[in-house]
Design a protein that fits this description.
The complex is a heterodimer of chains A (about 220) and B (about 280). Helix content of chain A is about 75%, strand content about 0%. With about 220 residues, chain A is mainly α. Chain A has one domain. In chain A, helix 1 crosses helix 6 and helix 2 packs across helix 6. The longest helix of chain A is centred in the last third of the chain and has 35 residues. Chain B folds into two domains: about 50 residues, no CATH class; about 210 residues, no CATH class. In chain B, strands 1-2 form a two-stranded antiparallel sheet. The two termini of chain B are about 50 Å apart. The mean pLDDT of chain B is about 80. Classes of the chains: A mainly alpha (about 220), B mainly alpha (about 280). The interface between A and B is medium-sized, with 30 and 30 residues.
């Protein structure tokens, strides 16, 4: 319990964000009405995804420096978890879009960037399946991971801000952490939700890592 | 000093008297290459003198390795033009199919979209073709001789030029058969070349990755498709503006975006390629 206190904290924060997010008073805005509560669930998903892909980048860089298979394993599981959160973020976003914009998917640079990010990391998984030898697979996928991360930052961070006519909110300044844009009551739920979901992402990754380690032990690898 | 003198004491009467009475035996052994150096110098000077008589002396020019590698690729290409012929064939056949399927009458947005789609698939074709020509056995040879940074830079430049040529040919073919609705031709040409460089930068790096991961074209297509999409979106958008827009002043931002998208993958690829190269 002493080591795992932060995991319990993450669970508690997510539980708090779910309950409080549905109960607090939110500002009444014209088109969005009550669906603004989705902010507490949609945005933290993407932040969890970015934190996971960042962890994957760091581990890929570490692998290329030290050539320790441990880093490669962490990088893969980071990408897997990040992909999970990206699908969740896309799903919550689609529900939100249906209620505010009228359609599940619109032609928007931010949405296209998110879809391309998912495609890029799915291609990473395909690349890994294509190589049999372990060291080679680790090295090549580390190179592709670094490449994909930098391009992801361009596609979801830089390109949507540069193109005009984007109806996805959050173009001036940071899309979610803008202190000006967010109501004080909502901030009370939003920041804990962020932290909670990022912790949940690390928990899921840790479970996957333990699973992978057990599998390797059974197959008598490392 | 240069010569070692072997001293050999010859004891004479002086030994009794205490005087130094050693006669040095001049047994000089040459321990340094000085005479060899002198001989070589003399030969060299003779050689250069003779050369001076026959051929005009000029300083030997040293080319940068990237330029040498480019020269080698271009020479190989001119001897057996696999890539160029494949590209020309692809351009001609796709443009002709477009012409036939639309009966020569294309609306403007369709012209733009089909142009860039053809370029996208043609570039993927060109990038993978250039890489699969070299037999795998030669990779070890290259690995020992060539700095990987120079290799990737030369490949990026070569592919960039190749895709620029591909773009020009496609544009020419379209203009001939299906019409040329482009108003701002200068901007469109700029877009073609920078777009070609951008496509080459992404596709060369992906081709390098895919070639290390087994020789399959489908892997290259799967890997490159999502990476190329944003560049294609920007190119299609800018192409529409080059065709339709009354002024191109508001496309300067688009041009800057294009340049960013073109050079960023190249920079990362150059940084990462040495890691791929070790095998």
């Amino acid at each position: 319990m002493k080591q795992n206190w932060w995991r319990w904290l993450g669970g508690l924060l997510v539980l708090y964000s779910i309950i409080a997010g549905l109960l607090i008073n939110v500002p009444q805005l014209p088109v969005i009405h009550e669906s603004i509560r989705n902010l507490f669930y949609h945005v933290p998903m993407w932040f969890a995804m970015i934190s996971m892909f960042l962890a994957g980048l760091i581990n890929s860089l570490l692998y290329l420096k030290h050539f320790n298979m441990k880093f490669d394993r962490i990088a893969v599981e980071s990408v897997n978890t990040g992909l999970l959160f990206s699908f969740l973020g896309l799903f919550t976003g689609m529900i939100w879009a249906r209620f505010t914009w009228g359609d599940f998917w619109v032609n928007d640079p931010q949405l296209n960037g998110a879809a391309i990010t998912i495609l890029m990391y799915l291609a990473y998984l395909v690349l890994r399946h294509g190589i049999e030898e372990e060291q080679k697979r680790a090295r090549i996928s580390a190179v592709y991971n670094i490449f994909a991360f930098v391009l992801m930052i361009v596609f979801i961070g830089i390109l949507p801000r540069l193109s005009e006519g984007s109806i996805h909110p959050g173009k001036d300044g940071n899309p979610a952490l803008g202190v000006k844009g967010l109501d004080a009551t909502m901030r009370l739920v939003f920041y804990p939700a962020l932290v909670g979901w990022i912790i949940i992402a690390f928990i899921i990754r840790k479970i996957r890592l333990n699973q992978a380690q057990l599998k390797d032990k059974i197959l008598d690898k490392f | 000093m240069f010569f070692k003198k072997h001293k050999r004491r010859i004891y004479g009467e002086g030994a009794k008297s205490g005087k130094k009475d050693t006669q040095y035996q001049r047994n000089i052994t040459c321990t340094t290459p000085l005479p060899r150096v002198l001989i070589l110098l003399s030969l060299f000077s003779l050689n250069s003198l003779l050369k001076f008589h026959t051929i005009k002396m000029r300083p030997k020019k040293k080319y940068h390795p990237v330029i040498l590698l480019l020269k080698k690729e271009i020479t190989m290409e001119l001897k057996q033009p696999h890539s160029l012929n494949g590209i020309i064939l692809y351009v001609v056949s796709t443009v002709f199919v477009t012409y036939l399927s639309f009966h020569g009458d294309l609306p403007i947005t369709t012209w733009n979209s089909i142009f860039w789609i053809i370029l996208m698939f043609g570039s993927m074709n060109a990038a993978s073709r250039v890489l699969y020509q070299e037999p795998y056995s030669r990779h070890g040879f290259y690995y020992q001789l060539i700095n990987p940074t120079h290799l990737i830079l030369s490949r990026l430049l070569y592919n960039g030029v190749l895709m620029g040529i591909l773009a020009l040919l496609t544009f020419g073919g379209f203009a001939l058969l299906v019409g040329n609705p482009v108003k701002h031709t200068g901007f469109f040409l700029f877009e073609l070349f920078v777009g070609g460089l951008g496509l080459s930068s992404v596709l060369t790096v992906v081709a390098a990755i895919a070639s290390r991961a087994g020789q399959s074209f489908s892997l290259m297509a799967i890997l490159s498709f999502p990476l190329v999409l944003p560049l294609m979106l920007v190119l299609i958008n800018l192409g529409e503006q080059a065709i339709n827009a009354d002024e191109i002043l508001n496309t300067i931002k688009g041009g800057a975006v294009l340049i960013l998208l073109a050079f960023l993958p190249a920079v990362i690829g150059v940084l990462l390629f040495p890691h791929l190269w070790r095998d």
